Amino acid sequence: MTRWRSAALVGVLASLVALAAYWLIGARASEGARSAARGGTPIFDGVELSALQRTRVRLIQGRYAPELQGHIDRLRPTVRALNEARSRGDTAVARRLWAESEGDRQASKRISAQMRADIREVLTPEQRVRFDANVAAQERKAEDLDRRLSSPSDGPVPAGGPGDSAS
Predict the structure, then answer these.
(1) How many CB atoms lie under 10 A from the CB of residue 97?
(2) In 10 A of CB 3, how many CB atoms?
(3) For residue range 24-75, what is the model confidence (pLDDT) as tens digits?
(4) Rounded to the nearest 10 degrees, what angle do helices 125-149 and 91-100 cross at?
(5) What is the pTM of this model?
(6) Over 90: is that where the pLDDT of 91 sits?
(7) Average pLDDT, the chain
(8) CA distance 164 to 102
(9) H/E element holding 50?
(10) Confidence (pLDDT) at 43
(11) Range 144-159 average pLDDT
């Protein structure tokens, strides 16, 4: 069971980094299936973008990319160390590393939220409904991970279920 929890945590963290990288390289509705297969929450799943919308989304992503990439680069070693700690079963170290990464994680969340708000303006009202649902699902998964890793207990991180492996 502990291995499943470790695998779930690794999957969630990898999905967070993959999602940020996905935003940096461009949003393509056709990539939704690949993102879902990797365990991510594709924010454009079910949202068919026109060529003009795709171009505008990429321009928005490009505007936020440098700042977001800086936070991702600073988080990468922490995520690696956190994964190693979890694979050893060292929950206390994993929780400490999670707490230490709070600043960059919150900054990334703020940047991502602003970028999503800008992207949302490009979408039609019908597309916004699906986009908002996808974003809400992504945020629920991220909040669940944060809640579990921010717990003051040094015991094992509680399993959140099979849907846990995505962010």
Answers:
(1) 21
(2) 9
(3) 444 443 444 444 444 455 889 989 999 999 999 999 999 999 998 888 888 8
(4) 130
(5) 0.61
(6) no
(7) 75
(8) 20
(9) none
(10) 87
(11) 60
Residue 37 corresponds to which tokens in the numbers above? 């297969």
> Nearest Cα to 74, choosing from 109, 105, 37?
105
Strand (E) or helix (H) holding 167: none
The Cα diameter of the chain in Å comes to: 50
In contact, 51 and 84? CB cutoff 8 Å: no
154, 150, 95, 148 alpha-carbon torsion, rounded to 10°: 80
- C-alpha 80/C-alpha 75 separation (Å) is 9
CB 6 within 8 A of CB 94: no
**Cα 89 to the center of its chain, rounded Å:** 23
Minimum mean pLDDT among 37-46, 76-85, 99-108, 138-147: which range?
37-46
- Angle, in degrees to the nearest 10, between helices 51-87 and 2-25: 150
- DSSP annotation of 156 reads P
| Cβ atoms of 148 and 5 closer than 8 Å | no
Q: Considering only CA atoms, which of 23, 34, 42, 5 is closest in space to residue 167?
A: 42
> How far is residue 2's CA from residue 133's CA, in Å, rounded to a whole number?
31
Q: Kindly list the distances between the CA atom of residue 94 and the CA atoms of 16, 20, 160, in Å, as whole numbers in the listed order.
A: 16, 21, 17
Per-residue pLDDT, averaged over 146-165, amounts to 51
